[in-house]
Amino acid sequence: MTYELLKELINSYEKENEWIEFKENNSNFEMIGEYISALSNSATLNDVSKAYLIYGVNDKTLEMIGTKFYPKEEKKGQVELENWLYQMLDPNVEFQIHHIECDELHFAVFEIDCAKHRPISFSGQEYIRIGSSKRKLKTHPEKERRLWSKFSSFCFEEEIAKSSLSVDEVLTLLDYKGFLRLIGLPYDEELSTKEYLLEKLIEYDLLINNDTSFSISNLGAILFAHDLKKFPTLQRKRMRVIKYRGNGKINTEFEQEGQKGYAIAYQGLVKYIMGKLPRNEVIKDALREDHSLYPEIALRELIANALIHQDFSISGTNPMIEIFDNRIEITNSGKPLIDVLRLIDHQPKSRNEKLANLMRQMRICEERGSGIDKVIDAIEYFQLPAPKFIAEDDFFKVILFAPLNFEDMDKQDRIRATYQHCSLKFSNQEYMTNTTLRKRFGIGDKQHSKASKIISDTLDKGLIKPADPENKSTRHIKYIPFYG
Fold first, then answer.
1. Fold for domain 238-404?
2. For FRET with 260, which of 75, 355, 380, 447 sits at 20 to 30 Å CA-CA?
3. Which segments of the chain belong to CATH 3.30.950?
4. Which residues, listed in sequence order, are joined to residue 389 by a DSSP beta bridge?
5. pLDDT digits (tens, 9 = 90+) for 21-75
6. Helices 296-308 & 262-276 angle (0-180, nearest 10)
7. What whole-number distance in Å separates Cα of residue 269 and Cα of residue 186?
8. 8 Å CB contact between 318 and 310
9. Where in the chain is the domain with CATH 1.10.10.10?
10. Do residues 23 and 35 lie in contact, with contact meaning Cβ atoms separated by under 8 Å?
């Protein structure tokens, strides 16, 4: 922000309002946090994208008198003020601190984004502006109701990750070469001008032209950032990988947190994880071959799903991959929009449609509706235990299990595998039978009774049913999932 823009902003208003606050030198840190909360929430209520806390202006006369306050140089204890404020605000709200000098006068401006998904709180308390006064939000229930109604219209991908940027700043923050390569567009060092690059970034909704500057959208940053730590509201959304020794979380072997945007990092992430997984030696055609215990296609799809379908409004949580000796757990924030029993052969629903569509366009994930089906198909081919899908209010977890002999699987393992096998067959316009189930478990033709017992247990759970209820013969009976 320049002095001219600051002066224009001040002259646009005759006095303070619900999204602009003027101060001279009052630099109480807790007060600043409370004002960021109040101004951000009030900006949303007034359909304004930015709020401002401006130091160096008399709040009565609007005279530009300057300030002695330099917030970028301040610390709260051993922590820089800016970082401390980010830690105390929930959810994270993007704000920028501008220091402006003119005619020996100094001004400090907090440029604050409006609240997007839920009210911004400081130190656990939400604030709002009533005229030019700062109040606790809970004391004004009518404002709180209106605020929540505003949040339903926000789209994560379209929100601003970083604003007030020059062309060179944009091209430094985003991996534009990687973007063009993944989207299948040509790039030439000599022929690809800045104008061409900006045009393509804007065309794909990664960048917004604000006439005098540019803003990077969340979509642009989360997919193509060189370093997500440069985007404060997104840095906690970096993929986290943890490898443990054994089957518990007591002994950590290593921990790694991603840095780049999802699209740029995806191939390297999958390769990195595959390299950390235990492997198995298989003899094929008299030759020894080294194989991963888990199918790569299943991991690729589940990792992509975790990145795409996470709920970005839930702050303080990373998408996470945890590797144990006997399993892999892949977790993302947010409850899935589809019942976990219907993940196979169900049209996907995503709370981040633009992100999902662009990831599909770059062939990072499978075509619409085929992802989980491919996971189950690969698991069955490897004859692994059926994956477990766990949905809670604020997270979704998929557990892949290491190889396990049929005799070592418990009853729930077998029922889960039977239901998933039946659902996969149904999605392929086929039926599950005793024969197909024995093949799925890798048990012999003479173990017909074992498969029958599993089918009976799964029928008792109400997860499958006979395809032809009128057929009274138990010989060659066919089954479909409960929803068929």
1. Heat Shock Protein 90 (3.30.565)
2. 75
3. 3-154
4. 398
5. 999 988 899 999 999 999 999 999 998 888 999 999 998 888 999 999 999 999 9
6. 140
7. 25
8. no
9. 406-484
10. no
